[in-house]
Design brief:
110 residues, alpha+beta, Ribosomal Protein S5, domain 2, 4-stranded mixed β-sheet, 3 helices, 4 strands, 37% helix, globular
């Protein structure tokens, strides 16, 4: 995922947590709020409850790949955070379907 599409700093995540609207499905919670940037930015928050770093990083990589499919079509001026719900395994097809469903439900895809 390119650097221009990512939330990087802690204060950016805190702003989203404080001012966000939320949507959810069985796999993820989507938090989103407006920003002053021209580009929409996406972040991922994965708890240590998911296990070791290998499992967390694998899910993070899957989320990044799923979001990159829609990055060019994202509506500008939004900060977005995905928070996964605790499950045993995430199939990549389920991740893509959930990301698309949540982004369209929130109106964040053109």
């Amino acid at each position: 995922m390119k650097s221009i599409y990512r939330l990087k700093k802690n204060y950016q995540y805190n702003y989203v947590y404080k001012h966000a609207k939320s949507l959810s499905d069985k796999n993820f919670v989507l938090l989103y709020c407006t920003s002053n940037q021209k580009q929409s930015k996406v972040g991922f928050s994965i708890s240590k409850k998911f296990g070791h770093a290998v499992a967390r990083n694998r899910l993070r990589r899957q989320l990044k790949a799923a979001v990159m499919q829609y990055a060019a079509r994202l509506v500008p001026n939004f900060n977005i955070v995905f928070i996964p719900r605790l499950q045993d395994k995430y199939l990549f097809s389920d991740v893509i379907a959930s990301v698309e469903k949540l982004l369209t439900k929130a109106g964040l895809i053109k």
